[in-house]
Design brief:
This protein has 84 residues and is mostly helical. It has helices at residues 19-34, 38-50, 54-67, and strands at residues 6-8, 11-13. The protein contains 3 helices and 2 strands. It has a two-stranded antiparallel ribbon.
């Protein structure tokens, strides 16, 4: 490839590992976590699972997990290290 960065409209294609998008995501995630709304949103999500759309949400979660390469061991309290 002659150039790693190509202009596409008003955006620059940084290729794999887009640092600009990663920085924007990290900034937004940090701002959201600091907003203080995270606990309320977690309760709302738990309530939604118990509500009328619970089956649909669980199905969407299962579909997303089925496409993942592997599950993050931290989600199950694992250390992420192989035993053996």
């Amino acid at each position: 490839m002659a150039e790693d960065r190509k202009q596409q409209g008003s955006q620059v294609n940084e290729g794999e590992g887009n640092k600009t998008a990663a920085a924007e995501y990290n900034r937004g995630a940090t701002e959201h976590a600091r907003s203080g709304d995270v606990e309320r949103e977690a309760r709302e999500a738990a309530d939604a699972l118990d509500g009328p759309q619970g089956d649909e949400l669980r199905e969407a979660d299962e579909q997303g997990r089925s496409r993942a390469k592997e599950e993050d061991p931290a989600l199950r309290g694992g250390s992420g290290k192989s035993e053996g």
